[in-house]
């Protein structure tokens, strides 16, 4: 990630001079959208300027990301990015219209595991039972994701390859639409962000089998980690994450000012309670800490993708 550009002028804290656009590169209903709609009213109150959430879904988050990359780097257009377009996509797509230096990490919002959920009609109450069912029906079941290159897609790829199963990937324009199709029975299973999928699980509309993280999650303590359930998944460990990014060239005082506002936002009881309710963990860090985190994720997923020989064109 690029060094943060130095600004001209004095030491007064930066404040926006017009409305802030918070671009979400996914459809409404998923964790990126939830993060943005929690953050926007806080920034609006904090700065006394409108903060508008705009959903720009498509191409695994590339469309929304590109819109922010092209924006004036002055703090008035921000991206509520995530593990897909900001880490996985950098290795997955061979013709990506931006690079790792096109954005500055400002501050994380939340991280959490993905959760394996199935439609109630699927005859599987455990992950090994789902694997057995997939092996009995090779290539007949479909799994959804919020888009090619998003964390739930790559989690599904890693899962099917590790277990030696075959299933059809069906990408949607966001986690919300994918979850709706699962509830309707039009797809059979998916790895969903726990933070957005937990509502469907608690309502009994889908059946949860495992979480993708190395350890169990406090919100569903009886649900095993995938790596507990099968030897083939012993190294399985995925956390999805979300955070705010600014276009490259954004002055350092702007980035620091936004980060300070988000630190205070993370400290509010409303945000802390929402993360607990969603099974998520606060991802606050300084701009440097968040940049280090993002760079580690870029390297980790680059290794996974290279080992699997995955290369796609931006759709």
Automatic annotation (TrEMBL):
InterPro entries annotated for this entry? BUG, Bug_dom1
What superkingdom heads the lineage? Bacteria
Pfam families documented for this protein: TctC (PF03401)
Family statement = Belongs to the UPF0065 (bug) family.
The record's annotation in PANTHER family points to: BLR1237 PROTEIN, TRICARBOXYLATE-BINDING PROTEIN
This chain's protein is named Tripartite tricarboxylate transporter substrate binding protein
Natural source organism: Roseicella aquatilis
């Amino acid at each position: 990630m690029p060094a943060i550009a130095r600004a001209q002028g004095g030491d007064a804290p930066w404040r926006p001079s017009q409305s802030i656009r918070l671009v979400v590169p996914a459809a409404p209903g998923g964790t990126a959208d939830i993060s943005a709609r929690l953050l926007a009213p806080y920034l609006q109150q904090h700065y006394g300027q409108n903060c508008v959430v705009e959903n720009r879904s498509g191409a695994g988050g590339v469309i929304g990301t590109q819109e922010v990359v092209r924006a004036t780097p002055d703090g008035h257009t921000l991206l509520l990015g995530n593990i897909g377009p900001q880490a996985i996509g950098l290795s997955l797509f061979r013709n990506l219209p931006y690079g790792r230096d096109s954005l500055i990490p400002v501050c994380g919002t939340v991280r959490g595991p993905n959760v394996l959920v199935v439609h109630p009609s699927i005859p599987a109450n455990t992950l090994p039972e789902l694997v057995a069912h997939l092996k009995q029906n090779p290539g007949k079941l479909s799994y959804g994701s919020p888009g090619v290159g998003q964390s739930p897609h790559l989690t599904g790829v890693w899962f099917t390859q590790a277990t030696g199963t075959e299933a059809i990937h069906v990408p949607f324009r966001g986690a919300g639409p994918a979850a709706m199709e699962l509830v309707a029975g039009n797809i059979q299973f998916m790895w969903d962000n726990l933070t957005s999928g937990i509502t469907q699980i608690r309502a009994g509309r889908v059946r949860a089998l495992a979480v993708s993280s190395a350890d169990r999650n406090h919100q569903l303590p009886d649900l095993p980690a995938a790596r507990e359930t099968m030897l083939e998944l012993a190294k399985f460990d995925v956390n999805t994450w979300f955070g705010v990014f600014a276009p490259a060239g954004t002055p350092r005082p702007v980035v620091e000012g936004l980060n300070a506002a988000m630190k205070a936002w993370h400290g509010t009881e409303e945000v802390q309670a929402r993360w607990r309710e969603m099974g998520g963990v606060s991802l606050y860090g300084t701009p440097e800490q968040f940049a280090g985190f993002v760079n580690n994720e870029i390297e980790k997923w680059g290794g996974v993708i290279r080992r699997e020989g995955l290369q796609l064109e931006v759709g």
